[in-house]
Amino acid sequence: MLSFALRRLLLAIPTLLFISLVIFLLLEASPGDPLGDVPLTVPPEVKERMREALGLGQAWYIRYVLWLKQFFWVEPLYWFDRAFGTGFSEGMQRIISFQSRSPVFDVIAQRLPQTLTVVGMSYLIGVLIAIPIGIVSAYKQYSWFDQIGTFVSMVGFSLPTFFTGVVLIIVFGIKLQWFPSIYDTTLRVTDWDSFAQQVRQMVMPVTVLALYNAAQISRFMRASMLDNLRQDYVRTARAKGLSERIVVLKHVLRNSLIPVVTVIALGLPAVFGGAIITEQVFKVNGLGQLLILAINANDIPMVMTLTFIFAVLIVTFTLIADLLYGVLDPRIRYD
Fold this sequence. Notes:
The chain is mostly helical. The protein has two domains: 2-84, no CATH class; 108-328, MetI-like fold (Orthogonal Bundle), CATH 1.10.3720. 75% of the residues lie in helices and 0% in strands. The relative contact order is 0.13.
């Protein structure tokens, strides 16, 4: 398994470099100007100096190589210095946002806790709900529980999150006034009252995202369980006198989790990437909203960095899912 992981990591390097080049070229070819919002009263020579200060006067391949150096060398050195009090990155130019004129990773670090709190909690709740529902629905196929679970899953998967979010805001935020309709990103949890307020404002966005995630994962879990319940090894295990609990939870569930692990692993990068639509609906000041603002402002360094981070996370969690296959099914070999 170790050699397999090393081979995949070595393969991931050219893959990620190619992805970064494609992202950079797409952003380079996109319409718009980072200085498009500059007032017309600004003289052309001043505007040209501003363009030079942003590095826009250099050739695209020079800017691409510079970004690679900043992403893979300067930024790790900077955060190493912050952690251990060294000065290796002193005087080095970090990745700067065109929009905020601040280091991109500093802005991401400010937004990341909000995204992890809301989106991470919703994904965790969605997985914890989906797996038991999928198991019971498959084991009791066509029962009332299966029918209700199928109906709720179809509704949760079919309705877009911006629709369910608006419905919850109208019903529970405006009509009943149980929960705040706008997420307060300035809230700091310092006591039980602020903790209760934080939980109240998280209820609706977490519910919207958890319903969507649970609907998708529970369908995969149910389908995989149904496929394995019909296999010969299940009948053999029952013929040996094993209890139904051991047959279902030890043998069937373990094999059924293999395709579900892929779905869960590929969904995890979205936790760090943020839920773009839901964050816009509830005004959560997370990474999803940051990406939308950066695209609208043609903030190439911010968009480039965020999208590449998402690509790195997808490659990483795909590798983790492949390694978990061997843990769940000993028959899988990586030779």
